Amino acid sequence: MAKWTTIQLLFLLVWVTEVGGAQSRDRTELLNVCMDAKHHKEKPSAEDKLHEQCSPWKKNACCTTNTSEEAHKDISYLYRFNWNHCGQMAPACKRHFIQDTCLYECSPNLGPWIQQVDQSWRKERILNVPLCKEDCESWWEDCRSSYTCKSNWHKGWNWTSGYNQCPVKAACHPFPFYFPTPADLCNEIWSHSYKVSNYSRGSGRCIQMWFDPAQGNPNDKVAKFYAQVVDGAGLRGPWAPLLSLALMLLWLLC
Ligand SMILES: *[C@@H]1O[C@H](CO)[C@@H](O)[C@H](O)[C@H]1NC(C)=O
Ligand SMILES: *[C@@H]1O[C@H](CO)[C@@H](O)[C@H](O)[C@H]1NC(C)=O
Ligand SMILES: *[C@@H]1O[C@H](CO)[C@@H](O)[C@H](O)[C@H]1NC(C)=O
């Protein structure tokens, strides 16, 4: 009798997790997708003319040529964001922000980290993307001599002039004042869109902001790996129906 009850409970558990799983984004939707945000295309596809720093994504991109060009401008049409809010940002620093914009707008590999949000300007965001540690470290290193007035660049600006300016109470200081470590910069600046990884570039376990497209996009396999992780966690995946079938047989035979 005790055996019966255990098996029935297991069967119920599998059924519940499967039904629950069907309501979240399923596995295929985590790969090769674009988020539902302000400028993203509906689906990734080739874009032959992507501009400069965004060109690594040209074989398969969520951004248009227009978005890739705008990503290189100050106070661009994309978000009217002013990188020079505490004097001119050093070009060596700015190129990391341009690359960050290219990754955000163009990457078809961010599916495992897409979350729904209730924001006027977008329906989805990214959360805790595992950025390769070297990409974060060089971003922080190259920005050490530039100035800023805030550690979260998503919120709290003065937008009265049509682009972001420092609010009066926020003083300009070199980056390390607001971002003491590389992790502080990468994790905090966009409200945890990134979570710096302990993994290195080339490991296949972290997202590269910078890559040489000659060998393809290294983030394809990173997304595949994390899509399986996300999937396995919910007792979903291709083996879930098999498991419930096995349990059902056991149930009938007992
Ligand atoms: C991109 O498109 C917007 C809106 O149509 C336009 O205002 C802007 O000038 C375009 N940018 C480029 C570089 O073509
Ligand atoms: C916002 O910026 C405007 C124009 O630059 C300025 O007059 C105003 O005092 C600022 N307000 C705050 C709260 O910083
Ligand atoms: C990160 O890697 C270092 C060196 O390989 C290791 O000592 C540390 O425990 C790792 N940290 C995490 C959070 O995995």
Automatic annotation (TrEMBL):
Domain Folate receptor-like: 33-208
Record has DNA damage as a keyword: no
Residues making up the signal peptide according to the UniProt record: 1-21
Keywords: Disulfide bond, Signal
Entry GO CC: external side of plasma membrane
Membrane spanning residue stretches: none
GO BP field: cell adhesion; fusion of sperm to egg plasma membrane involved in single fertilization; sperm-egg recognition
Origin superkingdom: Eukaryota
Pfam families linked to this entry: Folate_rec
InterPro entries with a match to the protein in the record: Folate_rcpt (IPR004269), Folate_rcpt-like (IPR018143)
Molecular functions per Gene Ontology: signaling receptor activity
Record-stated family: Belongs to the folate receptor family.
Protein name (Swiss-Prot/TrEMBL): Folate receptor alpha
Species: Prolemur simus
